[in-house]
Amino acid sequence: MVQLIALSAVLALILYIAVRVGAERASEATLDGILGAATLAIAEELRSVEGGAELELSPGTFSMLAAMGEERIFHRLNLGGLAVTGYPDLPLPDETPSALTAVFYDAPYRDADLRLAAVGRSLMIDNRPTPVLVIVGQTREGQRAIAQQLANRAAALGLAVFLIAIPLSLLAAGTLLRPIARLAEAVSRRGGHDLRPVHHQAPAELQPLVAQLNAFIARLRSTLTQTETFIAEAAHHIRTPLATLRSEAEIALRQSDDEPTRIHLRNMIRATEESARSASQLLDHATVVFRAEQHAKDRVDLGAMTAALVARFRPTADLKDMQFTVTLPDERLETVGDAVLIEAALRNLLDNALKYSPADSTVSITVQRDGAFARLRVCDEGSGLNGETLPVLSQRFRRGTNVGQIVGSGLGLTIVAETVAAMQGRFELIDRKEGGTCATLWFPL
Asked: Which string of b and e fits 295-308 if b means at least 16 CB within 10 Å?
């Protein structure tokens, strides 16, 4: 719109300048025609008489010059190089004129800018040819007035064109952009998870854009499919060899009686366990990042999912002589979201509670309604946060300063925080007064 209005302003200015220049040239040509005709008429009225020349200035000759308006008129008649009538100091032309055509020129005279015409002829006086020069000059106020009047009309016309161009530019811009806005609205309504081709009625000018958009969607869909396949395959091809390596190292540890070898095997088991946990957490985090943009709409029963995960972790808790106390609601608390992400968040919370809690301790899990949210709380009796805050601990690969001897990757709380953000929920991590940590998740019902 701004470009169209600017173009209209330039065109209006060009129109004004063109009319102004044309008006000046037209009025000057008109003045020259009248001035030249008057000068020729005076030259033709000059006659030879006995002993000299006779000139009868007709009132009609000067009346034709009055057609240009109220102007001052000057004349000069030279006979044989001498001024015999008129204004003897009226400026002469630079070139000698002929009797056929007038010579026109400009010159300042008596505080005015004159337009002058000069005509030359030869007159027989005393049987001798004598050169005659007739000069007529006229001020140009009328010419300027006519040019100014036409220029003012041109300026009014240009302004009118510019004012009309403003609503027309708005209309043109709206007409041009409306199909693009409709296309953008149609694409925005689809959401980030809808990767179907765009079938939207669009003008022929937008068809290349729609074609390229569909090509981009196809490439994106292919890339996401490959990413999901890679994550699944990586999870299998990394976890299985590490589990096998750990099993073989544990068997070798039981069968070995050499203490240095046993130390090396224990270090190998620990390194394998760290690698397996890091690989698992990295893959879980990649899954969270990938699926967070998909906006899945699964109906998840938080109570049932929590009970199933607690049952899965119970053997691990029994190995450390730890207890689970689970409080589930009588009603069914459901949230809508990605079940894989919610399970990953709860699994990491339970894993942290078991990992950082001492033996013979208790982990409390509570699921209950909290207004329009379902609140899930996991409390342990571990080492606590040691002054660290959730924004710091939820950074990637960031671990607490008091857990250096415990195997971990620093991605567990990152996964939980990103999952809750994708679910439009809330995550809180606080120290317990009696020791330990409480992690609380709020999921919208």
From this structure: eeeeebbbbebbee
Please tell me the distance from the alpha carbon of residue 109 to that of residue 95, in angstroms, as a whole number. Answer: 19
Give per-residue pLDDT as tens, 303-354: 899 999 999 888 888 888 888 898 988 888 888 888 888 888 898 888 888 8
Average pLDDT taken over every residue of the chain? 82
What token pair was written down for 248?
């073989």
Question: Could you give the percent of the chain with pLDDT greater than 90?
Answer: 10
Q: Is the pLDDT of residue 398 over 90?
A: no
Q: Which of 153, 148, 144, 152 is nearest to 70 (CA)?
A: 144
Give residue-wise pLDDT tens across range 373-391. Answer: 999 999 988 877 877 777 7
| Residues 395, 410: Cα–Cα separation, whole Å | 8
Is residue 149's pLDDT more than 90? no
**Contact status, residue 285 vs residue 411, Cβ threshold 8 Å:** yes
- CB atoms inside a 10 Å sphere around CB 426: 14
CB atoms within 10 A of CB 420: 21
Question: Looking at residue 235, what is its pLDDT?
Answer: 64
User: Given this model, what pLDDT does residue 175 score?
Assistant: 84
d(CA 370, CA 331): 13
Rounded distance between C-alpha atoms, residue 281 and residue 276, angstroms:
8
Cβ atoms 419, 406 nearer than 8 A = no
CA neighbor of 290 nearest in space, from 193, 413, 218: 193
- Are 56 and 118 contacting, i.e. CB atoms less than 8 angstroms apart? no
Of the pLDDT bands very low, low, confident and very high (cuts 50, 70, 90), residue 91 is very high
What 3-state class would DSSP assign to 88? coil
Kindly state the tokens that stand for 300. Answer: 């998840």
Q: Distance (Å, rounded) from C-alpha 355 to C-alpha 366?
A: 19
Which residues, in sequence order, are CB contacts of 210 under 8 Å at separation 6+?
183, 198, 200, 202
Per the confidence metrics, is the pTM higher than 0.70? no
**Contact in structure between 20 and 151 (CB atoms under 8 Å):** yes
CA 416/CA 393 separation, integer angstroms: 11
CA nearest to 102, candidates 56, 139, 141, 137: 137
> Residue 110 is which amino acid?
R
Q: What is the pLDDT of residue 160?
A: 85
Q: Taking CA 128 as the corner, what is the angle to CA 123 and CA 133, rounded to the nearest 5 degrees?
A: 30
Instruction: Kindly state the tokens that stand for 2.
Output: 């701004």
CB atoms within 10 A of CB 117: 27
